[in-house]
Structure of TraR/DksA C4-type zinc finger protein:
Amino acid sequence: MVDAKRFRVLLEEERDRKVALLRALLGDITSVNVARQDANVDDEHDPEGSTIAFELSQASALMEQSRVGLEQIEAALLRIAKGSYGLCAVCGKPIAEGRLEARPWTPYCIEHASGQS
């Protein structure tokens, strides 16, 4: 049986990192947008415009990835609370502890993981 307490600690630590990252990214995006509002920026003709647009795009993509990761972590914490953590959501068999070490938020055993987690 999986040591759910240990994995809960790992998941809570990862959740804290994701929340901090989301806050930082939101702050970065907000500050760039505020700066752009005060400037006459034409992304097409301004030599820095494309760089700023690229950085905003990257930050937005990282935010989305972090949001998805946070949702996966919250779902794993809910499975711990319900007593189903460490069991595959497809077949119900135990997920190998090594897999949980690598991806503690996964709801799938290695057999059912392809393309899902």
User: Anything to note?
Assistant: DSSP finds three helices and no strands in the chain.
